[in-house]
Amino acid sequence: MRCGAYPEVTTVRVALGQFNAVVGDLAGNCRKMRELWAQAVQSDVDLLAFPELAVCGYPPEDLLHKRYFLDDCRLAVDKLAADCPDKTMVVGLPESSAGQTYNSVGVLKDGQITTTYRKGMLPNFGVFDERRYFRPGSEPVLLELNDVRVVLTICLDIWNIEWLGDFLRDVGRIDLVLNVSASPFHLGKIKRREEVVSDCAREFECAVAYCNLVGGQDELVFDGRSMFADSTGTIITTAEAFDEHLLIADVIPRDDGKVKVRPMQPPAKQPIDRVSEVHGALVLGTRDYARKNGFKKVLLGVSGGIDSAVTAAIAVAALGEQNVTCLTMPSKFNSPDTVKDAQQLAENLGAEFLTIPIEPILGRFHEALAMVPGWDDAGIAYENLQARIRGSILMSLSNQLGALVLTTGNKSETSVGYATLYGDTAGGFGVIKDVPKTMVYELAEHINKAAGREIIPAETITRAPSAELRPDQKDADSLPDYDLLDRILAGYVEQDKSALQLIESGLPQQIVRRVIRMVDRNEYKRRLCPPGVRITPKAFGKDRRLPITNHYSPTTHLGDDSP
Amino acid sequence: MRCGAYPEVTTVRVALGQFNAVVGDLAGNCRKMRELWAQAVQSDVDLLAFPELAVCGYPPEDLLHKRYFLDDCRLAVDKLAADCPDKTMVVGLPESSAGQTYNSVGVLKDGQITTTYRKGMLPNFGVFDERRYFRPGSEPVLLELNDVRVVLTICLDIWNIEWLGDFLRDVGRIDLVLNVSASPFHLGKIKRREEVVSDCAREFECAVAYCNLVGGQDELVFDGRSMFADSTGTIITTAEAFDEHLLIADVIPRDDGKVKVRPMQPPAKQPIDRVSEVHGALVLGTRDYARKNGFKKVLLGVSGGIDSAVTAAIAVAALGEQNVTCLTMPSKFNSPDTVKDAQQLAENLGAEFLTIPIEPILGRFHEALAMVPGWDDAGIAYENLQARIRGSILMSLSNQLGALVLTTGNKSETSVGYATLYGDTAGGFGVIKDVPKTMVYELAEHINKAAGREIIPAETITRAPSAELRPDQKDADSLPDYDLLDRILAGYVEQDKSALQLIESGLPQQIVRRVIRMVDRNEYKRRLCPPGVRITPKAFGKDRRLPITNHYSPTTHLGDDSP
Q1: Taking the complete model, does pTM exceed 0.90, yes or no?
Q2: Same domain, B389 and B244
Q3: Which of B24, B381, B422 lies nearest to residue A400, judging by beta carbons?
Q4: Which residues contact B482 (CB under 8 A, 6 or more apart)?
Q5: Which single residue of A208, A297, B205, B328 has CA 20 to 30 Å from A109?
Q6: The CATH number of the domain where A288 resides is what?
Q7: Do B310 and B243 fall into the same domain?
Q8: A276 near B CB under 8 A
Q9: Is A294 within 8 Å of chain B by CB?
Q10: pLDDT at B10
């Protein structure tokens, strides 16, 4: 009976099982879901949802081309259904049917999969390739629980509200849109995601329960932050960022057509600003890459410079100081000051510190190479050789000790190729490879501030950056000032702006042209860098796919003086 | 008038401009097309077609996300139309319209683009990502030239004959299907392509003119072999493999409904067997990667083994012996026999030969690393170190001399990770990275036979393979026999078969399981190998996209003893 002063007519208690699914680990993922189910039962939950493709993790990529993988996913979810007969669970799985594969959720009830919903909107842009694997679904699925009408959606389904309105046209009244997602982090993404959830709530005048994945998977970090919105579009409660969380709320349709949301837990702490957000992503991405690939310990070269210092601090936050080894490998070009700073950093972090001077090795290389006419020790080749000796030492110790080598290059360097291929790019994981240099400085300040003491030595932060591969070398000899460089790179790499657009926005013409040439010319080098955490809207990974062999130089929009 | 004993009622002379388009080189590609147009005019051609996306090369990948790139492509084709007013030309371009992008061909006539056809079937599998960029077209385009009715199609459009029949339902009589393609080479592809062209001809009882791209683009090699089929489905004439060719034929509808094809040139020589096909692909792929990326010279390590010998021979075929430097870098583990064979190889090829012993460098590295507790010179790390010293020497000389380093790993090794990351995998291009070891032997025999003399020393072919990184090491100590290994790899990697399927086909259970584990575990290493020529249906490039972080181990189909 719906009358009176908007009484609450019924309630459904919804739990969002935001967990760290591991790609391919069907048994492990199901174990996690069973644990969360047990907790949900204790909290008397009616409906428990897990992230997109929860059974196999996201993205499984070409595992989806293996017939037996699809069979195994189905068997795992069947078993999960049998193991968890009470309550209704919504579990993502790749669903194979009549020779087609769908990105689906199964509705698990009474010990079996009672129905499946197939994702309608398949992203095939940015880091996503879902049309490579899946066919779109075409049928909405409505559940009724305690008279509450729940529509199932998967990730992108709610990002195009016009499409969704059309898709749900014949569904009738909706009290709750449940969305299960695997939405990766980048700076600014949470704001957009909250808008999408709010818009959806307002459009259908219903509550929205948004369940996101959490965890690092190769270059991607899923940041969690599952949430509930009420039918006014207000975000009522948000789960942990960068951590697992079982977020529970009651969804309560009222007689006036509004739908209330009543959270069952105190609010989770959220990152206070963009730098702490990025820090959280880097820590989780590094921890999960190491852990999920079987590494307990990591190893990195520290130079006394800011990039390796920030990388080391993140490694310690991710894995503990007892699992981080800092190695300094000075040559005659390294100043005593930077060597001292490297040591001080390791001491501040409580990490192991080793010193291996490379001078004797460099000397023997030089003698050997001097047999070849044309070799000299005054150019780039000799500089790069020093980086390659260091790379070889790190990789040798990695092999011997079973520790993962972290590389320390930032996005600004990676963009313009200011790195030695198979030298400082040699390693297993590039912690800050998507972090622009200007943000590396912000991270350094953040790390010291958060610790309440000097972790990264002040001199490391204030000294002019140098690769120390020749006497008195400074980054500024080869590169524009990092503030300027990062503005050009944000425009060209992340926003696909043309040289002309950048110049018209006030950036200096000659430098813009030079930077763009450097970016274009170094695609091959970036292709051979290890993976690293993506934190920007466009990293040098699956979201930016440019040919190595590429003769394009713009004519219409170059901003050239010639017509 | 159509009567009598099947008289030929009319004729259209068609030229297929199979040329080596360079990705992004709009001006250069248009220059080539103008040259071919001038030749076609001399041959009194009515219709001249170029390969798919001829103006910008294929695949342009994320260049298509740059608005100004699309504008430049359009301007370039407009200019080409103005430059080539006579005859009808069909020129591939990415077409931007109302915020969407299409994979189109422009019909150029009387100095302008008179109409465009938009590709209807967009491949988004294997190495293709066309749905990332393009919307499908929905309208057929029919040209009439000399009363001959010509339907335009692009690549995949003719590969699904049911779809095409439906798409062309209302077009009426068709005399010629023109298909412009960018169809990359792999072993066995030509046979499938000929079937597709024949089926299309028979289905529509018309001639088919199939214009394919030629040239190397990163990992892909486009093999050309454009062709004409008559309406019985017989392939009448085929253009050069792995080379440019302006293929001309008259297409002649007859009064009985059949369509004849009369070639205007003697037949082009075709590869005689699969090994010569692979050789052609490797030579073109290597030449184009070097040339298009600005390298005249290449440099590689030669060990006296078969992989480096075949790589060196292909490099000489691609770039000339004057542009190839072979470097041997012996340690105490290298036998005098292999060093001698390496020298003999270089001599046979007429290539420069250099020797840089690595023993002194290895000694200093060992001294330095011995400072770290746990280091020893008896394990894998010490073996890998030797490979990394060689990699550093090659990369140093590459930097100093401006030569591209070729890596020499084959597909069998690459599959199971039998290689040193940043050691023998360090370089710019991996010539035989998609060639299974058993085929490397076939290539060696082919190279010697084709030369009519010993290029690759007989001992290099007959000696048991060894990495020579420790005393008396043999590949067979670590790996199964290569015949067996390659059969397992073909099944698991290229055909996505499960362990159970492989075991049921008679392959030994323990070895199958071990090999699969090795393949799965080495994804990270393959991701960091330089690009190389794709010759199989599934290379370790864009056609096999597996996560690095991946805990999947099959349960249903493992062929395990346990239930």
Answers
A1: yes
A2: no
A3: B381
A4: B412, B436, B437, B438, B465, B475
A5: A208
A6: 3.40.50.620
A7: no
A8: no
A9: no
A10: 87
